[in-house]
Request: fold
Amino acid sequence: KELRLSHQFATGDVRHKVAEMIAEEVAAANVDLSIKIFPASSLFKANDQYIPLTRGQLDMTLFPLSYAGGQQPVYNLTLFPGLIKSHAHAKRVNESPFMEELEKVLNEEDVKTLVRGYLAGGFASVGDCVTRPEHVKGKTVRAAGKGFEEMLAHAGASIASMPSSENYNAMQSKILQALNTSSSSFVSFRLYEIVDCYTPAAENALWFMYQPVVINKTTFDGLTPEQQKALTDASAKAEAWYFEQAQADDAASVEVFQKAGVKIATMTEEDIEAWKAVAQESSFKKFADEVPDGQRWLDLATSVE
Amino acid sequence: MSGTLPGAVSGPREGDAFIRVVHSISRLCGVAAAGLLIAALLVTCHMIIVRSFLGQSTIWQTETVIYLTIGAICVGLPYVQMLRGHVNVDLIPLAMGPKLRLIWMVLILIVSIVVVAMIAWYSWEYLHQAWKRNWKSPTVWAPRIWFVWTAMPLGFGLLLLQLIADLWGQLRGYERPFWLEGK
Amino acid sequence: MDPLTLGLLVAVATIAVLFSGISIGVGLLVVAAAFLLIFDGPRSLEMIPEIFFGDLNSFTILSIPMFIVMGAAIASTRAGADIFEAIERWLTRVPGGLVVSNIGACALFASMSGSSPATCAAIGKMGIPEMQKRGYPDEVAAGSIAAGGTLGILIPPSVTMIVYGIATETSIGRLFLAGLVPGIMLALIFMAWSIFATWRAGGAHIFTGRSYSLKERLEILPRVIPFLVVVVLVLYAMYGGIATTSETAAVGAVACLVMAVVIYKMWQPRAIWGVLRDSTRESIMILFIMAAAGVFAYMMSSLFITQALAEWIAGLEVNRWVLMLIVNIFLLVAGFFLPPVAVILMTAPVLLPILQTADFDPYWFAVILTINLEIGLITPPVGLNLFVINSIAPQISLRTILLGSLPYVMCMVLAIVILCFFPWIATGLPDLVMGEAIR
Ligand code: NA
Ligand code: NA
Reply:
C-alpha cells in the first residue's frame, strides 16, 4: 500500500527531512507500506491541504496546523504569542493535556497526529532592529498567524497581508519593514540578502509554530497492525530528531544571517514580558471573546509550566 | 486552423425565446463580471494608498481583491461562452464534411456539459459544507468561505445553462457547427 | 502502467482533445477529469473545484486582468496611435523601426510585470493593429508580440524565478540578475529575426518610409507626454517602495483609465463599456485556461508522471552534455502541456541536484529552464500567449499566429545554444554585482 504525503517545503528544509525519515523507516520495516512525498507544494498548495486530508483524499501532510484555523478556530492557539517560551517548554506542551484535548478535535475531523513538533522563529527587519513592541510602531509588518497579527496591530504596526512569494520583493523595496516567520523560512526565503537586522529565536523566544505530521484517521485505521506499528515507530524516531533539529535550525539561521553581514539582535526576558502584555490586551482577549469555549482553551494552553 | 472568434464582436445569432432568455442572463453576468473587476482595481489602489501614504494596516484588501477577481472570472464564464470568447483550435472539425461536423459539435457540447455539470455539482457540495460548518479564511479578517465560494457553483451553473442553450441552438440549426462557414 | 507510457497516453489524449474544437479551458478539464477518474478513482473528481479555485486564489495571477485593462485603455484612445506615430517619425531610419520598438516595449513592460500573458496582452493590444496598418506581415505582427511577451518571465521581476528560487533554495536576487542579460539578448535576437522576416516577405518599402522634418518630429512629442507620465508613475510605484509588483498592475490600469477619460475625453458610457467588455472577456478567457491548466497539472502531479520522468533522467548515467540535452528536451515537452510554474514545482527539486552533481550552475540552469518554458507559451497545444493574441487580435487567424511564432521558437533554441557555449551571459552580471556565488 502506498500513502501520499504532501508538504509545502523545499527539499533542503528540515521538515522535508522529517517526512523523508518516516518514509525511509517505514520502507525499511518491510510491511508492504510505502510513502510517496510531494514536496514544495507540487501537489497541493500550502493552504489547500487540510480539507483533502480530512476527507481522505490526501493521506498525510506536514503542515502548520494554524493554517486550518478557519476550519477549527482552536488551531490558532498553535501559533499564538506568549504561550511557549522555549523548545524545552514546547516539548512539555506536546505532552500536556492541552495537546490531548487538541487531538480530540483533530480526531473528530478524522485526522490523527503522528509527529508533534514546534519550530521557533523571530523577526527580520530593514532599518532598526525589532526586539520590543514599541519598535514596530509605524512599521509595515507581515506576520504569520492571526494571534501575532492582532498583537502587532495593537502595538501600532500596520499589518500588510500579502502572499509569501511577494515577501522578498516587498522587503527589498522597503514596502515591508519587518517580517515575522520561522527560522528555516527566513533562510529558505533568502531574506538575509536584503534585511538589515535579524532577531532570532534564542534563549528567549516569542514565536513558536506547531507543525505536526498528520494522517487521515480512517486511512490509518485501515492499515494492518504491523503497518500501524511501523508507522508509529518511524514517527517516534522522527519526532526525536525533529526536536533536535528545531533547535539546531535556530542556530543555523543565525550563522547564515551573520555570514551575510546582517546585524543580530536579542530579546531579553523583559522584552518578552512586554510583548506578552500587549498580547494579553489584544489576541488573548479576542480569542476568548470569539471562540466558543475560548477562555477554557486559553487556560489549558497557558497551564503548562 | 482558423480564427475562431467570429462572434466575438457582433455577438451570437439569437434563436427562439429560450435562447434569448439565456443570453440575457449571460449578458447580465458580463456586466456583473466587469463591475467586480473594476471593484478589484479600486480596492487595490485603496490598499496601496492606505498602506504607503497613510501608514495604516491593510487587513482585508488583499483577500477582497482576490475574491472579487475570482468572482468576476466565475460569473463571467457564461458571458464569454455566449460571445464565443473561449478560444478553441478547430483543426479536426475543419477537415470534416458538414454533416459529420454537426454530429461532432453536438458530441463536444455534450462532453463539455457533462464536465461543467460535474464541477458545478461538486462546487455546490463544497459550498454546502463550508456553509454548514461555518468555515472561515485563516486570516485576521476571517471572511466566511461560503460567501466567496458562491461564485463557483453560480458561475459553472450558468455556464452550464449557456452550453445547453448552445446545444439547443445547434440542434435547431440556428447556428453553424463551430461557427464555421460551410464548405 | 509505467510513467513513460502513461505520459505518452496523456500527451496523445491532450493533443487530440485540444485540437477537437472544444474550448481550451474545458478541454483541459476534460482530460484531467478523465485521467483522474481512471487512474486515481472517482473520489479525486470531488476535488477539481477546490483545485480550480486554489489556482485562482493568488494575488500574483490576478494582476493579469489589471494589465489587460491597462492595455485596453491605451489601445482604445488616440494614445496608442500617437505613441506609434511618434515612433514612426523618430525611428524612420531604423529598418523595421515599429517591430523593433514593439519588442522593446515588451522588454520594458516585462520589467514591470512578472507574467508573460500580461505582457503580451498589454503591448499587443495596440502594437498588432499598428503593425498591420503600416504594412508589416501578419505573421510578424502576431509572432513578434507572442514571443516578445515571453520576456515577461525572463526579465525581472519574474514569478517563475521566485518560485524556482524558493523550490531550489537559490538566491532570488541573483536569479533576477541572471535573467536580465539573456532577456535582453533574446529581445535582440527577436528583433533581428523580425526585421529579416519583414524584409523577406516583401516589406522592403517599410524600411524606406518617408522622412520627417525636425519640426514634424518635435510637434508629435507633446502628444505622448500623458503616456510617459503613466509609465513614470508605474515605475515610481514599483521601484520607489510604494507598491509590490502585482499591485503595480492596478496603479497602471487606473492611471490608464483616468488618462483615457480625462485627457482623451472618453466620456461616452459606450466607449468606456467597450474597454471594460473587451478586457473582461480577455481576462476571463485567459484566467479560465490558467486555472484549468492548474487542474491539469494536479492530474499530472497526482499520477506522478512528470516527477517519475525527472527521476528517470536522474538515474541516467551519461555524459554531462547529453544529460543537458535530455533535460532540455524533457523541459520542452513538459512546457508544451504545462504552465511554467507547475513544471518548476514538479521537476526542480529532482533535477537540480543531478545537474549540480554534473557541475552545472543553478543560476545558469534557471535561465535555460525559463527559456524552455517560454517556448511552451508560444507552442500548441497549451500556448497561453497564442491564445492571448488570438483574443486581442481576432482579425488574425490562429494558424497565422502559430506559423508566425514558430521562427521565434527557433530564436529561443538558438539562445539556449548560445547560453550553453557562453554561460557567463547568465552568470556574469550576478557575479559582478553580488560577488562570486558559493557553489
Ligand atoms: Na518580468
Ligand atoms: Na505549449
Residues C 110-111, 113-114, 152, 155-158 surround sodium ion (ligand 1) (CB under 6 Å). The first helix of chain C runs from residue 3 to 18. The two ends of chain C are 39 Å apart (CA to CA).
